[in-house]
Design brief:
By secondary structure, this protein is α+β, with helices and mostly antiparallel strands. It has one domain. The chain is 45% helix and 18% strand. The protein contains two helices and four strands; from the N terminus they run ββββαα. The protein has helices spanning 32-48, 54-71, and strands spanning 3-5, 12-14, 22-25, 28-31. It has a two-stranded antiparallel sheet. It has a two-stranded antiparallel ribbon with strand order 3-4. A hairpin with a 2-residue loop joins β3 and β4.
């Protein structure tokens, strides 16, 4: 049996299934709850970003994940 550890919350992801129970983003593995929190954190910013570019989006997602890894959680408002 293979297990993974979420890079943000350090929770164990048993029986991992890519895209369902864990997500690989910005060279990090995120569990499903942390992935949902990431989406909730970036959604309001992305919706108001004009002009939107994918380079900016990739950088913003990576920056958000790295901050969450350092803190051990996402700052969802």
């Amino acid at each position: 049996m293979k297990t993974l550890t979420c890079d943000v919350c350090k929770g164990i992801i048993s029986a991992p299934v890519s895209g369902r129970t864990y997500f690989h983003l910005a060279h990090r593995e995120l569990c499903e709850p942390c992935h949902d929190k990431l989406s909730m954190q970036i959604r309001p910013v992305v919706r108001t970003k004009i002009p939107f570019t994918y380079d900016w989006y990739d950088h913003y997602v990576q920056e958000s994940i790295e901050k969450a890894v350092q803190k051990g959680k996402f700052d969802v408002k």
